[in-house]
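Hi Y.,

Following your request, here is the sequence exactly as I used it, all 421 residues.
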Amino acid sequence: MVPLFIASLLALTPDAVACPTIATGTPNGLTYDTAKTSIVHQNGRTTFTVSINPSGQSQEFALVMPVPALLQESDIKVLDNRVFENLEAYTGLLTMFDAGCAVRGGGDGGGDGGGDGGGDPGGTVHVEAEYLVGDYQISILSAEESAGLFTWLNTNGYHLASATLPVLEEYIAQGMYFMAAKVSESATAADGSSLPPLQVAYNSDTIAIPIRLAALNTSTQQDMLIYAITDETEVGGVVGISNFDEFVIEDKCIWGDPSTEDFGAFYEDEFHTLWEASGKAAWTVEWSGGPTSCAPCSGTRFDADGLEALGFEGDYDDHFLTRIHLRYTPETAVEDLMLYASGMSQPKVTSFADDNSSNRACILACGEAPRDGGTDEDGSGDDVVDDDESKDSGCTSAAAVPWSVAGLAILALGAARRREG
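Below is the corresponding structure, written out as tokens. Let me know if you'd prefer a different format.
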């Protein structure tokens, strides 16, 4: 049995048109402008959390996840939206008005149920359990063959593309269950408001994220943001994806003038160019570190309460967080994601300097050839001070800089159901 799960499904109508950063696709036009995931692997147990921010009719949201075990109600939770808000601000891309050129010699730089029983006349789909968890109606399904499951899901409002049938059959053959979640009719979320993050936990020896179902439900590229958390008392450190290519975006360099240029457009161009060169199924680490390793820091703290809410157990000082930004297309997502903990606790903060006379004194422009005397290994000038003091000299977080991970249509989140009537 494949020990890990997760594929949230967005049903795109066959003629749906979506820009590269927006997942679109229900008959009622529900879209998602941001979506984020967290995965914690510790002591042989994995906790997966997904945050959804729909733009449109929130009551239409629904998702399907293959899971490796029959989940109990205690394995499913909803979280406060502030957990992901703090996490995103804590690890966001940084731009610096004053990157520290004026400071010489300081700092070391390290420092209700989804199943009503209908839609499966052959009886090959079994509703194993039904729960009401927060704003979500949850059904746990098992199936004997893919056609019956496909019919049940579509009849009950989970609109999948017919191309998902072979993938459903593979998961069934592996003994997977399926969690189907809808927004409860009693939910109070207003249209366009963020739904509470949904969390599931299960036992597993490995870390994997099935994405093929999701990829088959969209005709455009998809982005996925993964906050992976490991335990430094086990095999912790930076988390990577073993079966997709990695690329590295040059940072610690001057990106442009914020008064006349758009940082979001600059970063998207850098990301997209390297992603295409890597075969259109690739990822990069945008942030990694332990509790005190950010340099520079965003000014937002991700505290022990937020870490515990995401499923981490133990001492706050023992966690290591990696932010992975993945992009793929339906054609290139031919395998599910296999994640690994490297055991290397190398901190990384993706940051850029604004173009001004102060920063030009010691920092190269992104893509600029080294000056006489060279630069340090991460592309910045030798005199750049990259420590916590930078936040006191004009360092601003991505929350202040109007940028968010390009819309993040992760895993094609959210097979939205048709509104009754």
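Residues 1-34, 103-119, 374-421 have pLDDT under 50 and may be disordered.

Thanks again,
Q.
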